[in-house]
Amino acid sequence: MKLIIAIVQDEDAARLISSLMNEGYFVTKLATTGGFLRAGNTTLLMGVEDAKLQGAMAVIEKICKSRRQIATSPSPVAGTTGTYMPYPIEVMVGGATIFVMNIEQFVKL
Ligand code: 2BA
């Protein structure tokens, strides 16, 4: 069995969860915040049988889209006046960041 931890954009989360549930996956949704943009994103936890791992990955790949986002620079540069001068930067946020882990034990009580 595997644990999939998938960090996705909020815009894709509802559709992704519906699609996964329709295909028989169990999903837990966490409201999370990206460290770089300091903006909300969604993290999904999914325990899946090994044989269903690729199916889950395919659903995530189909639904989650990369998008450009404008963010304020995380480390403002100090100007000559001593004031901070944050500047806008454009980043490409991926469709999904996915970690797959082996599960040693899975128990439901
Ligand atoms: P954030 O940390 O808010 O990052 C949003 C996007 O900003 C990233 O998209 C990437 O394009 C850019 N970015 C992040 N850190 C950066 C840095 N140190 N320098 C330059 N650009 C940077 P993604 O890579 O697609 O990541 C989307 C979200 O997935 C991240 O939101 C974070 O919540 C999570 N994530 C990504 N990689 C991770 C990792 N290795 N460990 C834990 N969480 C991760």
Features:
binds ligand 2BA; 2 helices; alpha+beta; 109 residues; two-stranded antiparallel sheet; four-stranded antiparallel beta sheet
Describe the secondary-structure layout.
Elements: E1 2-8, H1 10-22, E2 28-33, E3 40-48, H2 53-63, E4 67-72, E5 77-78, E6 84-85, E7 88-93, E8 96-102
Antiparallel strand pairs: 1-3, 1-8, 2-3, 4-7, 5-6
Bound molecules: ligand 2BA.
Structure commentary:
The protein is of the alpha+beta class and 109 residues long. 22% of the residues lie in helices and 41% in strands. The chain has 2 helices and 8 strands. Strands 2-3-1-8 form a 4-stranded antiparallel β-sheet. A two-stranded antiparallel ribbon has the order 4-7. α1 runs antiparallel to α2. The longest helix is centred in the first third of the chain and has 13 residues. It is elongated, with a radius of gyration of 18 Å. Bound molecules: ligand 2BA. The site of ligand 2BA has 12 residues, from β7. Ligand 2BA binds next to β7.
Order of helices and strands: EHEEHEEEEE
Overall 3D shape: elongated
Q: State the distance separating the first and last CA atoms.
A: 17 Å
Bound molecules: ligand 2BA
β-strand amount: 35-45%
Q: How many helix segments?
A: 2
Number of strands: 8
Q: Which consecutive residue ranges, at least 5 long each, have pLDDT under 50?
A: none
Helix content: 10-25%
Query: Which value, in Å, is the CA radius of gyration?
Result: 18 Å
- Biggest sheet overview: 4 strands, antiparallel
**Class by helix and strand content?**
alpha+beta
Order of strands side by side in the largest beta sheet? 2-3-1-8
